[in-house]
Amino acid sequence: MALDRQVALVTGAGSGIGRASALALARQGLRVAAVDRDLAAAEAVRQQMAAAGGTALALTVDVADSAAVDAMVAQAGAALGSPDLLVHCAGIAPRQAVLDMSDHEWRQVMAVNLDGTFYVARAVGRVMAERRAGTMIFLASDRGLYGHARGAHYAASKGGVIALMKSLALELAAHGVTVNAINPGTTDTPMSRATLSDDEWQRRAAQDPLGRLSRPEEIAELVCFLAGPGGHFMTGQLVTVRMRFG
Ligand code: NAD
Questions:
Q1: Is the pTM of this model over 0.85?
Q2: Closest residue to atom 15 of ligand 1, CA basis
C-alpha cells in the first residue's frame, strides 16, 4: 500500500501506539515529527527512525498548552514541511472514583485528552485547510461510548474526542481534510499496563474472542491504512478494532 501523505505529525510518539505509529509511518517513507511531553522518549524514537534511513524530528510539547501547540506545529512545518497527516495519540488515563475526584484530577484529564485534541487539531487543521489536503486520526476509546468505572474523567474526555472528530469532519470536508478516530481496544502499552492490574489483564485477554489483546504495532497498521487512500474517502468515522466482550 503506497501512502501519498508526505509529512506526519505524531503526538504521544514517545510510547505505545504513538511510538509504533511513528515507526510504521517512517518505514513507509513519510517524514515524521515525533512529538511528546517526554522529549527523551521522542528523541529515542527519532533516533530509531533516523537509523533506519528516515527523516524525522523530535519535539517536546504539553498538548494542554495552546500556545505551545501552535509553536510546535509551526516548528515541525518549518523543519519537515507542512504536515498532511496528524496521528494524535497523546493522552493520560488515571483512575479515580467520581465521588473522590478533585476538581484538579477532573481538569487535568480534560485538559490533556480533550483540550489537547482541540488545540492540536485546530493548529494542524489550519495548515491542512490552507493546503486543501490532509488526514487526521485521533485515538479515542470505547470508554467514551460505554463509560468507565473509576475513570469517568477519561470516559468523558474520550466521548468529547469522538464528538470533536465528527464535528471537525463536517467542517473540514469542504477543505479536503478527512478526520477519523480509532477505538483500539485494550492494547499492550505502558498506559494499559499501568491502569490494569495483572489479574484484570489476564481476565481480559482470556475473555477476548481472539484470545489475546492488541499490540501497538497492530494499531499502527490501521493508522497506516487510514493514512493511505483508504482514509481519503472516509471521514467522521470511529473505527473500532475489537468487538466488545464485556
Ligand atoms: P502511552 O501512555 O503508552 O503513550 C502516551 C504518550 O502520550 C506518552 O508518551 C506520554 O508521554 C504522552 N503524553 C501524555 N500526556 C501528554 C501531554 N500532555 N502532552 C504531550 N504528550 C503527552 O499510551 P497508549 O496506550 O499508547 O495510548 C495512546 C492513545 O490511545 C491514548 O490517547 C489512549 O487514551 C488511547 N487508548 C489506549 C488504549 C490502550 O489499551 N492502550 C485503549 C484505548 C485508547
A1: yes
A2: 91
